[in-house]
Amino acid sequence: MKANRIGVAVLDGKVRAVGLRDGRVVWAASASAGEGGSIVEPLANLLAEAPRPGMRRPVVVIAVGPARSQVRRLSGLPPGTGARTADAIVANGVSRFFLSNGIPLLPGHSVPGADGMLWGSVFEAPLVSDALDACRRARLSCEGLIPAVAVLDRGRQAAEAVLRDGETTVAAKLQGHRLAAVTRVAPGPEQLPGLPVEALAPLGEEACSYTEAYGAAVAELSAVPGLCPGRALPEGPIPPWRKIAAAGALTLAMLSAAAGPGVAARARAAKAERMIAALEPRALSTFDARAQAVRFAAARDEFRTLARLGGPPRTAVLWWIAGALPDSAALTTLRIDGAGAQMTVLAPRIGPVIARLEKAADILSPQIVGPVTREVVAAHERERATVSFRLP
Length: 392
Known about the structure:
By secondary structure, the protein is of the alpha+beta class. It has three domains: 5-236, Nucleotidyltransferase, domain 5; 253-308; 314-390, 2-Layer Sandwich (Gyrase A, domain 2), CATH 3.30.1360. It is built from nine helices and 16 strands. A five-stranded mixed sheet has the order 3-2-1-4-9. α1 (40-49) packs parallel to α4. The longest helix is centred in the last third of the chain and has 70 residues, at 240-309.
């Protein structure tokens, strides 16, 4: 339980505040919200009236009603998503998780609920701005803003309660001060808000009005999906020496910013050049090895394809061709696949070559593919042709 804390509830057009000292309620007050629902003036006035014992000023925690805040289980997240990741996802797509009526919404941090699932919250941005402005005027620190439904069991003697905020009514269930279920319901006279806790007894008949404010005062922010804007401005005027020091620091920062990028860039460039020089031999050898591996893989795949297709040994095919070609013919290229073979022949005349091939027993259906060209080889005229044939 926190000592010297002020809990505030913004609910149903009212601003209510409860002051704690060593965990005991020592002060309570309320005021109506201003025009358009603004809470700057009423909250600032209430905080200015709050007692401030000792040297340490109290901090402020503000509970916001369901009309200006939302809280819900963050379903649809990837399994194992942590709170920080969930916060980033919600911040990048608030409308995916919460309803929007055109008023900007500020998301708070997410926390696990009673079932271990993450719960998140959002607050109307104008309300957050008003709350922080009021705390600054009162020279107090705003420790956080939290949904009022998340602390219903802190100020009531029940783990289930109904909270009405203007035209919005919410039923909440908590287990171990952690959210278990939150649903919007239709208002009804039979719905009871729950009895206040014993700590509110000093307020008498008004205790029921301050249950949410007390819940904010005693809440553990680490267990509530709220918004923690940080501390307010420092107390009192800023000393002149701090202004001079700040001006000097700003001047140094500007000078560093002017000279720093060039120096840093040159240092990074030199470091990059050294790294490239060290990695270049390794990179070249890696590229060469990769090229050899690619060629080997292609040859291996071709060999496996031929092995699956079967057929006579390649040396036998060469033997058949050598026996069928005349002595005056020369074989320049030969390609063998599963369907047959194709070779390029250079001879004085291609006609006699085809006639010899047709008579060979192991060379089937020889035929010329493409044109027959003439060329001079070693002062002799020769014909070049591509001949395809099938294998037995």
